[in-house]
Amino acid sequence: MPVAAAEVLVEVDGKIGIVTLNRPQALNALSISVMDAVVEALGGFDRDPSIHAMVLAGLPRAFAAGADIGEMKNITGGAAAEKQLARHLSNWDKIGLLKKPVIAAVSGFALGGGCELAMACDMIIASETAVFGQPEVLIGVIPGAGGTQRLTKAVGKQLSMEMSLTGRKLSAREAFSFGLVNKVVPVESFLSEAKKLAHTIAAQPPLAVQAAKASVREAVDSKLSEGLSFERQSFFRLFDTQDQKEGMKAFSEKRKPVWTGK
Ligand code: DAK
After folding, report:
1. Does residue 94 sit within a domain?
2. Enzyme catalytic residues
């Protein structure tokens, strides 16, 4: 399904490319079409020799409140989840594979797939209102787009466990103190600060920048593919459970879920 044109905005500012999520009515929930458009836009900038760095921005109230629960809630069975969501999920991985640096400009909610999207970028500029979390357990699943792996590498095992097992969220200041974000700025300037950082990078020699990015990634990502694959299979299997159905249904019906452990 093609994305509604206004749901993802794409612009160029000198040597930087800016992609903005713009689905405010759903707190920038990452539907299949939105993620396809984001990857297409960033991929286009990655191949464009006149672009040297990119910014992936959200809106002041939300970077992204997760993958679109409405699209996932009716999937029954782990095999069906894998069939329907595997390509969607590969979009998060594709962002991690871009050659040029991507800076996430995060304000408001960065939850679930939104937090995973920010973490798939290379650096994060956060507004004072940013909130980071992996609350999937609250709707009967687990992070499925890299959260258990990238969050653990970013903040360490203890905090990552707490966040993934309880849905605990981090304020922008906490995220900064744990090394998840580069800088915290007033909400009015989160986008301009991200652009400023992108322009600074874009002024450096592009081949050296790309080589540095690849090297830092290598340090962080070795064995990541194995972890991601393990995480993914666990995620898909949860679509065989009643609690996944109940968690997503309860969210849509705006009530508390009743867990059965089945
Ligand atoms: N999906 C769809 N709609 C969402 C949404 C989401 N993740 N989050 C918010 N919305 C919608 C709400 O349904 C509501 O729509 P209307 O009812 O107005 O039509 C609108 O956005 C405003 O939300 P609220 O009314 O709930 O606003 P509040 O300020 O009261 O609360 C909130 C904000 C962010 C605390 C709350 O909306 C919330 O808890 N949202 C869900 C957060 C969450 O659980 N996120 C994780 C989702 S699961 C994978 C790829 C990705 C993933 C997994 C696998 N593969 C392809 C394998 C990722 C999974 C997830 O992200």
Report:
1. yes
2. 67, 113, 116, 136
Answer whether residue 69 is part of any domain. Answer: yes
Sign of the dihedral through C-alpha 137, 160, 77, 72? positive
Token pair listed for 106: 């995060």
pLDDT means over runs of 10, the chain (262 residues):
74 98 97 96 97 98 96 86 84 95 98 98 98 97 94 96 98 98 98 98 93 89 80 88 92 93 85
User: Would you say residue 156 lies in a domain?
Assistant: yes
Cα 209 to ligand 1 centre (Å): 35
Residue with tokens 């069906």: 80
Residue 170 bridge partners (DSSP):
132
Number of domains the chain contains: 1
Quick one: how far is CA 10 from the chain centroid?
A: 18
What CATH number is associated with residue 61? 3.90.226.10
Q: Best mutation site among 33, 68, 69 for ligand 1, i.e. most ligand atoms within 8 A of its Cβ?
A: 69
